[in-house]
Structure formats: C-alpha cells, structure tokens
Amino acid sequence: MLTYDVLIVGSGGAGLYAALKSRMEEDLRVAVLTKVYPTRSHTSAAQGGVNAALANKDPTDTWEQHWFDTVKGSDYLADQDAAELLCREAPEVIREMEHWGCPFDRTTEGKIAQRPFGGASKPRACHAADKIGHVMLHTLYEQGLRHGVDYFNEWLTISLLHDGKRCQGVNALDTRTGKLHTIQAKAVILATGGYGRIYWNRTSNAYGNTGDGLAIAYRAGLPLKDMEFVQFHPTGLRRTGILMSEGARGEGGFLLNGLGERFMTRYAPEKMELGPRDLVSRAIETEVRQGRGGPEGEVFLDLTHLGKEKIAERLPQIRQLCIDFEGVDPIEEPIPIKPTAHYSMGGIHTDINGLTSIEGVYAAGESGCVSVHGANRLGGNSLLDILVFGRRAGNHALEYARSVELPSMPKDILASAETRIKSLMEGESEEKLADIRRDMANIMANKAGIYRNAADLTEAVEDLVELKARYKRLKVKDKCKVFNTELVAALELENMLDLAEVVAKGALERTESRGAHSREDFPERDDKSWLVHTVATRGSDERPVLHFDPVTITRFQPEARTY
Amino acid sequence: MTEKITPVREKILSNIRIQRFTPGKDRSPYFDNFKMEVETGMTILEVLRHIKNTQDSSLTFRAFCRSSICGSCALRVNNKTVLACSTQLMPILKDFGKATVTITPMANLPIIRDLVVDIDPVIEKLAKMHPYLVENKDRVPETLEKESLMSQEELEAFGLMTDCILCGSCYSACSAVKADSNYAGPLTIAKAYRFSVDPRDDFRGMRFQAAMDQGLWSCVQCRKCIKVCPKDTRPADSIRDMRRISIDAGIHDSPGSRRAKAYTDDVERIGQVNKPMLPVIVHGTKGWAAIEAAEAGLKKHGMEPTRQVCSLPGQSGAAKIYAKVREIEGKKKGGKTNG
Ligand SMILES: Cc1cc2nc3c(=O)[nH]c(=O)nc-3n(C[C@H](O)[C@H](O)[C@H](O)COP(=O)(O)OP(=O)(O)OC[C@H]3O[C@@H](n4cnc5c(N)ncnc54)[C@H](O)[C@@H]3O)c2cc1C
Ligand code: SF4
Ligand code: SF4
Ligand code: FES
Fold first, then answer.
1. Chain B residues within 8 A of A45 when measuring between CB atoms
2. Which residue from A232, A328, A416, B304 has the fewest beta carbons nearer than 10 Å?
3. One domain, residues A353 and A462
C-alpha cells in the first residue's frame, strides 16, 4: 500500500500551494494526486487578476477596505472572521508567489502592478497580462518539483477513507492501468475545484470541474455548505460556454436579441451593456424566455459597428477567441452568446484552517467553503482564496501529520470501490451517458439556473431523483481497462448528480434572493430569516438533509448592496 | 431600425479518419472512419466529442479546459500538430478541398491509447533542467514584507516563455528529437532559458550544465517548434539564446559550442570558415579520420585537397563588424554594472 504523511487531492492552485507548504521543510512525505497533469488544472484558465491590498497603485488602499468590499460583495453571507484572514494575509501570499518566481506585471518602480476590478473600491488586482492563473499554477508546480513533492498524475480519487473520527486516506483509480489503489495518509486535503459542470455545456469551467471532492466528502458523511450559490457570467460563447471578457462590452459592443434589438434599454437604460454581471445575465435570460432569443436560445454580442480597425487593434484576443472557438469573425457578424455558470461559491464545510469535522481531513480552494465568498464572489478573490486557504490547510496538515502515527486500516478497505467499478463495467447499458448528462444540464439551467422559483425547483428536485434512478441503469460500454475515459466520465456524472440535487434542494429552501441566488417568487434579501449558511448532509435515504448555521458577523452590519 | 439575426451555418458531410490503437489488444495502429455532419464553428475537439458521445464511446483522447490554456489536447490533423480545442475543422476541409480529415496522435512519444500519448518522457526531461526559480539573495527580499523589484523590461526578456502550456506540440514536431530521442526537446531548454535570464534567479550555472547534458547543441534550428507552438513562445529562439549565454558564461567545451566558436573566430580572422579543419576543432583528434576520408574522396575524383584556406578580400570589413559588436556589448555590460 502507498503511504504518505500528507496527501493532497487536486493540483490546482489550492492543492499545489498546500503541497508546497507541507513539504517545504522536507521532513514529511507529501504527494499530490490529480486526475490531470498538474499544470492542466482549471486554475490555469483564470485571466484577470488576484486581489491583494499591496497599495502599489493606490497608496491609500488597505486590507480593511478589501475586507469590507469582500463582505459587501458576498451580500453579507461571508463569515467575517474568514474574510478578514483572506484580506489580511493577501499581501503575504502574493509576495511569496513573487519570491518563487511568479511573473507578475510591474509598475514603473518595479513593483507588482495592479488594476481595477469589478466590486473593488481600489485598484488591487495583481495581473500578468491575461494569464494570471496560468503563471501562478506553473510557478507552484515548478517549486513543487524543486522541493520534491510526488505527483500521481491522471489518478482519479473515488472515495475518502476515515473511521468516523480520523482520516485514513483515499481510494483512487490509476486511469493509465485501470487499477484501483488505496493510499494511506495521516492527512488528506481535498482541493478538487468547483462544480460548474453540473450545467454541463453552459459553463466557463473545464470538463473536469465536476465537483468530485465535494461528492466524495458528501458520501463520506461530511457536510456541504451554501451549495445553491453559483455565479453566472453573462457572456459565454454559445457552443462552448468559453468566457468573453467584459472588455468587448467596455469597448462599445452592443447586446442584441434575436430580433436585433438592443434589449438592455429595458433593464438598465443608463448603464446599458455595462450593468453588473448578475443583472445582465438575468436580462439575457428574460429575453430568451420571452421568445426573443436567436435560433438556439442565444443572444448576440455585436461588435460589427466598431469597424474592422478598432476591433483588430483594441480587441485582437477576443476576435481570435471567436474565430478559434466559435468559427465567427466579429468583424463580420455578431457573436452568439449565452450566460455561463462561472464560479461555485458552495463547497465542503470547513473552519478557517480548512479543517472538516473529521480529524486530518481538510478542504481548500473552490471545493471548500470557509466561507469567504458568501452569496457572491468578487472577481480576483478566488485566486486569492486558493492561495490563502491552500496555505493555511497545508500548514495545519503539516503540524497535524507530525503529531500523529499512521492510521490503522481495515483489510477490505478497497472492496466498496471495487464493487462500484465492477457494477459500472459489467453488463449491457440501458442508458446513454451523454443523454443523462444533457438532461441534467437542461434541468439545472432551466429550473435551477439564473432564475429560480418554487415550482421549477420542486420539479428540478423530482427530475433529479428520476435521473439518479436512470443513472443506476447506466453501464460503461468501453470494457478496456487502459485509459478508460468513459469510465471516468461515468464516475464524474454520478458525482454531479449528487451535487445537482443538493444545489436544487438548497435553492428551493432558501426563500429569498441574495447574491447569485435569485428567486422570482422572493425577489428581496431577507436578513431576518436567511442570514444563515445552508448546510447539507446526506440522509440515510441518500437524499440531502439541510440545516442552517448562523453567519459570523464581527465588524460590518448588513446593508443594502448597491454599487 | 432592427433586423432579425440569422447566423449563417454551413454543413458538410465529412469523413473523419482517426488512428486507433490499444496496446495489449491491437498489434499495431489502424484507422477508423467516422461519418458525420460538420458545421461551421465546430472545433476538432467538438468533432471528437461528438463521435465519442454518439458513435463510439471507446474513442480515447485528452481534453480539459477546451480553451487552449491547459495543454491537454495536442494531436495531429492532416499531419500537423495542433490543439484540438482551438482548431476549427471547416476551414481545413475547405483548404484541402476534400471532405476527409485525418487525425493522429502526436509524434515522438509512445502511444498509451488512440490519441493519447505518454507525456512523461517530456516531464522527466523538464524536471532535470531545474525548471524553477532559485532565489537570488541580492534581488529577492528575505521577508514577506516586500516583493523583489524588477522592471517590466527585465520581465519581458523572459515573459514570452512563461506562456508555455506544456502541450508538447513542439516536441512532437521536433527534428532533433526525431533523430535522437535523448535530446531534451524545445520546450525544456526554453524553460531553462526562461529561468536563467530571470534576474531574481541564482541557478543558471546548474542549468547550463543540465542543458549541455541533454543536448543543448543538438537542435538543428529547423524552427518547426516555432511554427507549431500554439502560444507563439518561439522555443528555437530561446535555444539559440541559451547557447549564446552559455558560451558567454565560458562554457565552450562541447562539439556544438566549439563549432559555433570556430565559425565566429574564423570569419573574424579570415573572412570565411576554415571548413577543411572543422572536424578536428569540433571533435578533437577523432576529427582527423573524417578529414582523411574527405581528402581520399577528393583525390579519387582527381582533385587536390588542401588544408589551407586563404583570407577573403572582404575580411577587413568583417573584422570591423566584430569590433563594433564588441563595443556595443561592452557598453551594455558596463551599463548594467553601473546601473
Ligand atoms: C474562465 C475563468 C476565469 C477566471 N478568472 C479568475 C480571475 O481572474 N481571478 C480569480 O480570482 N478567479 C478567477 N476564476 C476562478 C478561479 O480560477 C478558480 O476558482 C480557481 O482557480 C480554483 O482553483 P482550485 O485550486 O480550487 O481548483 P482547480 O484549479 O479547479 O483544480 C482542481 C484540481 O482537482 C483535481 N481533481 C478534481 N477531481 C479529482 C479527482 N476525483 N481525483 C483527483 N483529482 C481531482 C483536478 O485534476 C485539478 O487538479 C476564473 C475561473 C474561470 C472558469
Ligand atoms: S528548431 Fe531545434 S528544437 Fe525547434 S524543432 Fe527544430 S530541432 Fe527541434
Ligand atoms: S513551447 Fe509551445 S508548443 Fe512547446 S509545449 Fe510550450 S506551448 Fe506547447
Ligand atoms: S483542452 Fe486545454 S488546451 Fe485544448
């Protein structure tokens, strides 16, 4: 059996930072287990920036202002002690990244450059051209190589092992050989990223952002928190959901419905296309629902009036993106777009050290929920979250692993994983994987997406139960053990179905509108009843059971969120 | 005045020819043909996913971000290495004027299954290059109170190589890897160069050695890596520059660097390369055998070989250029120590 002191599941920014922290003094055995090669993790897709009140651009910026912006942005659902840590430790983690070689852009004095970002009162997003996530991820990977972190690449974690009190390790599938393994570990840090893929093609997220870590934790009896909060971005490309940044609208792009009308006049007559993300997303959704979308339920981002020169000069990357991914040249025709699920605020319930209710089991990054983002994440705060809480989890796990002996392991610990794989691999399928996945996405987008109401959500919950029954009849057709991507997709789908149900259930129960959660039947925020976290555990009937925990308020009393 | 928007979408019934191979099951790679309707806007990756979802779920390929940033999906389309996720199929069908397209895995790497290759050899070679920053104490502060100071110009000297997504395309296309599988490959040397010119780094000496050990001078500068790189990082240029800075650092002791040095020294001295003597300069005493063989060959064809190469008339001009270059470089270096 493979044995480690600290085992990290996931090699995004959160996982790699945690790994580096626990391996830094080189006395413990630390491994990262990841379903893709480390640098392929979704963190690489982040373009814009990472927040820290370095005050390089505006000397009056302070971490307290960052703290306030974060709490306000969260629609007051963030725990203020956690948000405080996030903003207080931000300058340190950014500088640590810089010392490790991260190529941030520079000011004229040679310091880290910063730009303004939505929802931030000061320019504090540190950037590296339009590839901040990519350079951060590579820097962390490189330093991991330097310090001797072990990597298990293309291994899929299937289950978390614990004895009810203490962590024991994980079961995982080596996809290259198709063999199952148990990895014994004193501490496990789950850093498996978000669950945006429950909306399948309507997300800006990578194919693998299927929320595996959350589903694994949920099945192992750990609670999930605030799962109904999923942030949508208004402008994703129609075919793929790939993000078109605000830049195109900033340069004067128009949003047109299928009839060619500039529909934002109806929703934000002053700000028009430059209204806040959630408002624009809802406006698009309304147009489409009322039958004014394009032939495939899209609307259009029209740049043609800007002219060839301006587009080629000011928006070359956006133009290339449209040509490469959508086959559309924005000089010649409007770009078809749809709102796209972008960020998962919910996650595995943890304390400020990333610790869960099981000793030695941690969660960090988008898969965790400390909670610093509450009902709505600010741009540039999630890359910060993965650094700060990846680091905290790494440090805490290091101390913990030094203080305990290896856990004892029952003999048949692999048996349940073997049974699960076997039941998927043997027999003829009565269902098609792609069909179930598409149906899930449609349920989620239409009934638990940008707009929500009691009737739709009740249906969604029922539909998902039915879909889970259909999943039970699904078999993997490809019977080969080597690199079986169909098997991986089937296991991921099972995870997504569990999470989709928790999202829909939470959204149904929460009879208010707050941040990214928007109820047509309850359009107001309701601090009297709903200034609470939704906590979901898996009941004995495999259905989610909810309870509600108070929000930690230390400094800022809730106010209306206006910008 | 508004007008209804009706996007134009062409459709072509196409034949997608894909190389298949499952080690242990198949003796050797073979091709499968899939018929499908390709429409405007479809990427190669969408085509592969469509086939997997509707025709053959065992078709195996890698993809993750589907937005050309993770580097998972490199493969060959009509023999050219590309990222499947950012390559539109319709223009290719039109360019080639036929409705068939052939998809094969990357070259120079062992196949795991179908379009999936084993990328570990590249990662192992990369790991040997010390591909990480080792803090230069003069530039990187001891505490986390401050960041290191670095100008945007200093950053831009290596910024391009930080765009590399480790997709392996350049490795797949590389002539030198094809000739010698021990060669480190474009991206790994380029990465070593990236850190070696980062002013915050203090480890370049070790990297020169690592690059020399892994064939720094094996690259034939065919520039195929530049052509295929989806991120335009220009690895061949970094390799050229790595050679230059390693020679500047006094590392002359390899056949490649000796050749480069002989070229430059000869041109300054006599205005042309002393070709007849090159083998000895590059390969030491072993070079004599090559010279003698060449001389025998010439004699056989009735020619009289010579080991003397005369100075060309333009030599003085060449020498002036050298002097000028030295002057400029001297100034640059001076500038650095003073500034
Ligand atoms: C297009 C886009 C742009 C963004 N831009 C910004 C921005 O400008 N600023 C900002 O702050 N945030 C941004 N974000 C959000 C931010 O990028 C993410 O929230 C963050 O990178 C998540 O990091 P992570 O480490 O938690 O997870 P990820 O980077 O998603 O990594 C998850 C890891 O878990 C592994 N994994 C998952 N399941 C398993 C399993 N079963 N077994 C083994 N391994 C597994 C994966 O292989 C992967 O390595 C953006 C997001 C998107 C989609
Ligand atoms: S230029 Fe050199 S590294 Fe690049 S492909 Fe040619 S031989 Fe390989
Ligand atoms: S240098 Fe370019 S082609 Fe080579 S691995 Fe990096 S991104 Fe890919
Ligand atoms: S899927 Fe990530 S680069 Fe193509």
1. 65, 67, 69-70
2. B304
3. no
Q: Which atom of ligand 4 is nearest to the CA of B64?
A: 1
pLDDT of residue B339: 29
B162 with B239, same domain: the answer is yes
Is the CB of residue A184 less than 8 Å from the CB of residue A168? yes
Among A108-112, A275-279, A513-517, the least confident range: A275-279
Q: What digits encode the pLDDT tens for the residues A542-553? A: 999 999 999 999
Q: Do A11 and A131 share a structural domain? A: yes
Q: With an 8 Å Cβ cutoff, are B144 and A135 in contact?
A: no
In terms of domains, do A55 and A181 share one? yes
Query: How far is the alpha carbon of A37 from chain B, nearest alpha carbon, in Å?
Result: 8
Count up the domains in chain A and report the number. Answer: 3
The protein residue with its alpha carbon nearest to ligand 2, atom 3, reads B186
Q: What CATH number has the domain bearing residue B31?
A: 3.10.20.30
> In angstroms, rounded to a whole number, what is the distance separating the alpha carbons of residues A465 and A498?
9
Contact B195, B126 (CB under 8 A): no
Residue B336 lies in a domain: no
Task: Please check whether residues A195 and A245 belong to one and the same domain.
Answer: no
pLDDT tens digit sequence for A205-223: 999 999 999 999 999 999 9
The verdict on residue A175 lying in a domain is yes
- Does B145 share its domain with B59? no
Judge if A161 and A59 occupy the same domain.
yes
B139 and B112 within one domain: no
Lowest mean pLDDT segment, chosen from A5-9, A23-27, A123-127, A501-505: A23-27
Determine whether the interchain pair B165/A39 forms a contact, defined as Cβ–Cβ distance below 8 Å. yes
Residues of A annotated as catalytic (active site), given as ranges: 277
Residues A105 and A200 in one domain: yes
Burial class (CB in 10 A: 0-12, 13-18, 19+), B28: exposed
Domain count of the fold of chain B: 3
Q: Identify the pLDDT of residue B308.
A: 67
Instruction: List, for residues A104-153, the tens digit of each pLDDT value.
Output: 999 999 999 999 888 889 999 999 998 999 999 999 999 999 999 999 99
Phi (first) and psi of residue A302, to 5 degrees: -100, 120
State phi, psi for B275 to the nearest 5 degrees.
-60, -45
- Whether B236 is in the pocket of ligand 2, judged by its Cβ within 6 Å, is yes
CA-to-CA distance for B268 and B252, rounded, in angstroms? 18
Residue of A93, A244, A261, A482 to mutate when probing chain B, most B C-beta within 10 A: A482
The ligand 2 atom nearest the CA atom of B220: 7
Encode A132-142: b = buried (16+ Cβ within 10 Å), e = exposed.
bbbbbbbbbbb
**Structural domain of A69:** 2-229+345-403
Q: How confident is the model at residue A66 (pLDDT cuts 50, 70, 90)?
A: very high
CB distance A207–B63 less than 8 Å? yes
